[in-house]
Amino acid sequence: MATSMRRALMPLHRMRFSNLKNAEASLEVRYPLPFVVPIRTKKRYFVPPAVGVKGKAAASADQEAKARAAGVVLRQEYMERDINIACTAGVFDPYIPPEGDARLSSVTVKGLKQRTDENTKPSLHCRIRKLKEHDAEFTTKVFPVKAQEIFMHSLSYDPNQLGNRYKTLRWHFVDKGNMFGQVTVRMHSRQSLAVYDRFGRLMMGSEEEPRDVLEYLVLERHLVNHYGMWRLHGKIVPAWAPVTEPIVKTVMILGPELKPGEEFEGLNYEVPKPKAVQWHK
């Protein structure tokens, strides 16, 4: 009986002894391992240059050859630009204003001769008939009023034309029916213009004093297009035109160096006036 009880309690004694060993092992002190930070240094090995490859062009050609050998077709890129065939690139028959225009009266001999030469040109009536074939409403009496309306409308939407700054327009003759019509209008009007800088100072012109402005406007229409309209195409600036008014720029003028204790008012320093210089953008 005692032997059988001993055999039954032996597994419990072993389990208790193993738990005590594990507890003693967990109480052992473990010291931290040394922490090493790797430091990046320079490459000590030598990389030889590629043989037979000169520049990026040769490298790209080598890549294309490898791609073709592998059966991969590379798509070719085309640098295409937008073109517009609804208008021409410039004035194909510029009008040369005679010297003294807007100063010669029709009553004088020179002014009457100038009017006679303009109205007796043989090609003038032929061109007007050609315009009327495609635009039945075109008349030389009503068109100046319409040209003035188009000119005023284009000035009110002038910032929208900045989108064509980096575009290129190239015109080629496409077909017989692709015809354009251009009309040069001499416009003598009164306008007022004032340009202010960022500080609010007047740089050019005046709002209260209107001036007489003589302009030669070129209007164009795509005659083949039934929905085409007359649009302002450009201006003609004659060689004898007066020089525009110079722009007064706001500049900073350095004054004299003041010593400690001095005042600017006591020096009686005269500020030099800048000279008007003609400049362009």
UniProtKB/TrEMBL annotation:
SMART domains: Tim44. It is found in: Mitochondrion. Its main location: mitochondrion. Keywords: Mitochondrion, Ribonucleoprotein, Ribosomal protein, Transit peptide. InterPro entries: mtLSU_mL45, NTF2-like_dom_sf, Tim44-like_dom. One of its GO terms (cellular component) is mitochondrion. Residues 127-237 form the Tim44-like domain. Component of the mitochondrial large ribosomal subunit (mt-LSU). Within the mitochondrial ribosomes, required to direct the nascent polypeptide toward the tunnel exit and position the exit at a distance from the membrane surface. Belongs to the mitochondrion-specific ribosomal protein mL45 family. This is Large ribosomal subunit protein mL45. It comes from Oncorhynchus mykiss. The lineage of its organism: Eukaryota, Metazoa, Chordata, Craniata, Vertebrata.
